[in-house]
Amino acid sequence: MIELVRARLEELLATLGARRVSIVPAGGGPPPLGVGGVRTLPLGGGARLEVELGAIGRASDEVDRALEEAVRDLRELVRASQAPWAAVSVASAGPVRIRDRVRAYLGALAELHGARTALVSVRDKLVAASSEPDAHEHARLPLLVRRLEAAAARRGSSHGELVDDDVFALSFWHRAALVVFFADAYPVDFVRHRARMVARELAELLPDLEPDPGAPAVVLRPPS
């Protein structure tokens, strides 16, 4: 039964792009304080489902629907096994799951009204996208990245921002760019707010996608 429960929690983790999904049995203590985006739902018998979404996740109605379905499935699994609720927890770990979480955040951005595609690049290389960019979007990306760098230089900052009729883009982290393509006009202030929230989350995830460093650099010292 534990294996089936864990598999269902992992499915929910991937669907929501969550940081963590846990079953906390009765007496497991209160929800963690000071952790943003934590949702809890009763499972029965004093147990609860605890989901750490992070600062931004999927649309609220989609989250509610996914959580309700998961609670129903988990209750059926436990009822069929006639076993008590056990503590089970799954969390994002490893490049594959981290990349899935990156795509989940981009997918949330792509669900904004009029958005076509949301993507993130690092050092001019496309890392992930909510959906495969078309040829025109691929061709525009290098120019948008250069324009972001120029905008940052004008501000005397490491981060820049672009607001075009059909594109919103911002740079963050180490030469990372978050780009959202739109089919039509869009609410700039709202998109800016959501994009900055996503960028904060991605800045925590992207370092884990970086390749492991090779051998330590050899420092050559001049002869004394």
Secondary structure layout:
Elements: H1 2-16, E1 20-24, E2 38-44, E3 47-52, H2 60-81, E4 88-91, H3 94-110, E5 115-122, E6 125-129, H4 135-155, E7 161-163, E8 167-172, E9 176-182, H5 188-205
Antiparallel strand pairs: 1-3, 1-4, 2-3, 5-6, 5-9, 7-8, 8-9
Helix pairs in contact: 1-2, 3-5
Structure in words:
With 224 residues, this protein is an alpha+beta fold. The chain folds into two domains: 2-91, no CATH class; 95-209, Dynein light chain 2a, cytoplasmic (Beta-Lactamase), CATH 3.30.450.30. It contains five helices and nine strands; from the N terminus they run H-E-E-E-H-E-H-E-E-H-E-E-E-H. Helix 1 runs antiparallel to helix 2 (60-81) and helix 3 (94-110) runs antiparallel to helix 5 (188-205). Residues 212-224 have low confidence and may be disordered.
- State the CATH class of the largest domain: Alpha Beta
Largest sheet: 5 strands, antiparallel
* Shape descriptor: elongated
Strand content: 15-25%
Order of helices and strands: HEEEHEHEEHEEEH
Q: Low-confidence spans: pLDDT under 50, at least 5 residues?
A: 212-224
How many beta-strand segments?
9
What's the number of structural domains?
2
Rg computed from alpha carbons, rounded to a whole number of angstroms: 21 Å
- Full CATH superfamily name of the largest domain: Dynein light chain 2a, cytoplasmic
CATH topology annotation of the largest domain: Beta-Lactamase
- The helix-and-strand class reads alpha+beta
Spatial order of the strands forming the largest sheet: 6-5-9-8-7
How much helicity do the residues have?
A: 40-55%
Mean pLDDT reading = 83
Amino- and carboxy-terminal Cα gap: 69 Å
Number of helices: 5
